[in-house]
Design the sequence.
């Protein structure tokens, strides 16, 4: 059982790396493509790519997963709706805010996911997790400032925070579908959200980018929003929504590092480093908190096995 938990943690970390690359590369792609159109092709890439994987693995995977039932419909709808709102807010926010700061603000998703899981789905939030939530919230508050002197918030940062809250709702909806075929779940989510974002883009007058940019966008979407979520759902089914989200929380730091490499022109202010300090401490506490319950569960099972 211990090796199973370790494998689940590795999957969560791999999903984090795959998603992390999307932030700096999306920032670069925004130079040639509008936010909603970028969101649309990212999710369409995820849906089409995982759909192809689903067809390849159909015989093997379909037998091992539950079919969809009527009770799953609200979670499917919720998953798609929140995945339409979230990326659009995120991309508009990213276009107005630095890639490194946006990467760190992504960790607010931990706070929102944990609170939603506790309030709506009765998951337990430990004392350590509460401390981490406070620290991450403080960090997000500091990072959102545009000017300390005038107490002015960056509008782009606010949009990113709204996106993380929407993704937190989506995480909990997805968790309710974690016993289904994960390729099918991501395919439905990707195609549904992608079409929704595309409709929004066309209604608001955004134009199609070049074929080359569309191809790059689809590829990035497949890796960061497709494969990443497939792996994330697998980890979720093994250790739960809050724990998977906790290990997945390293993705902002990876994304921030990649932003330094690929977007050196971005300037980092004092608020970034102060926010980074609180964010690191909060994230470390989250990881420590998630390791402890796993060890306790394993010890209890070992004792019961001996009896």
Sequence:
């Amino acid at each position: 059982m211990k090796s199973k938990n370790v494998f689940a943690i590795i999957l969560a970390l791999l999903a984090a790396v795959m998603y992390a690359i999307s932030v700096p590369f999306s920032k670069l792609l925004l130079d040639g493509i509008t936010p909603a159109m970028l969101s649309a092709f990212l999710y369409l890439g995820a849906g089409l790519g995982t759909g192809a994987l689903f067809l390849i693995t159909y015989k093997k995977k379909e037998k091992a997963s539950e079919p969809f039932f009527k009770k799953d419909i609200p979670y499917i709808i919720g998953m798609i709706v929140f995945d339409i709102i979230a990326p659009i807010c995120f991309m508009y926010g990213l276009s107005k805010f630095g890639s490194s700061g946006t990467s760190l603000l992504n960790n607010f998703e931990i706070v929102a996911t944990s609170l939603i899981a506790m309030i709506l789905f009765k998951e337990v939030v430990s004392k350590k997790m509460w401390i981490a939530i406070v620290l991450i919230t403080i960090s997000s508050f500091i990072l959102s400032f545009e000017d300390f002197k005038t107490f002015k918030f960056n509008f782009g940062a606010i949009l990113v925070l709204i996106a993380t809250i929407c993704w937190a709702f989506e995480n909990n909806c997805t968790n309710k579908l974690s016993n289904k075929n994960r390729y099918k779940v991501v395919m439905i989510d990707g195609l549904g959200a992608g079409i929704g974002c595309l409709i929004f883009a066309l209604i608001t007058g955004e134009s199609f980018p070049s074929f080359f940019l569309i191809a790059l966008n689809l590829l990035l979407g497949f890796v960061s929003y497709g494969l990443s979520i497939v792996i994330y759902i697998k980890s979720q089914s093994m250790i739960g929504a809050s724990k998977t989200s906790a290990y997945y929380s390293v993705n902002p730091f990876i994304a921030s590092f990649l932003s330094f490499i690929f977007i050196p022109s971005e300037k980092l202010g004092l608020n970034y480093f102060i926010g980074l300090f609180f964010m690191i401490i909060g994230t470390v506490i989250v990881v420590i908190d998630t390791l402890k319950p796993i060890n306790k569960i394993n010890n209890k099972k070992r004792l019961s096995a001996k009896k």
